[in-house]
Amino acid sequence: MPERRDQGIAKEILRILKEYATQHGKRVVACKVRADVPRNISLYQSIGCHVSEEYVLHRTDGISITVVSM
After folding, report:
1. 3-state secondary structure of 58
2. Confidence band of 3 (pLDDT split at 50, 70, 90)
3. CA 48 to chain centre
4. Beta partners for 68?
5. pTM given for the model
6. Residues 16-68 pLDDT 10s
7. How far apart are CA 21 and CA 29, in angstroms?
8. Pairwise CA distance, residues 18 & 40, whole Å
9. Which of 35, 30, 37, 28 is nearest to 57 (CA)?
10. Alpha-carbon distance 49 to 14, whole Å?
11. Closest residue by Cα to residue 42 from 53, 54, 51, 52
12. For residues 11 and 47, is the Cβ–Cβ distance under 8 A?
């Protein structure tokens, strides 16, 4: 929803998710993000995530997408 961008909603949801994971004994929270969407990579970096690897994901429909693990 473009009209909801830049309000901190996604960052707050991710903060709560990380807090929940920690409270339930999880030491690592990981995600995959499309490499061609730098805005999303920046969002995850803003909450302390780091790119750990980049690779090409080959979907079953034949489309290949470069993603980063964070």
Report:
1. strand
2. confident
3. 11
4. 33, 54
5. 0.74
6. 999 999 999 999 889 999 999 999 999 999 988 999 999 999 999 999 999 99
7. 7
8. 17
9. 35
10. 11
11. 51
12. yes
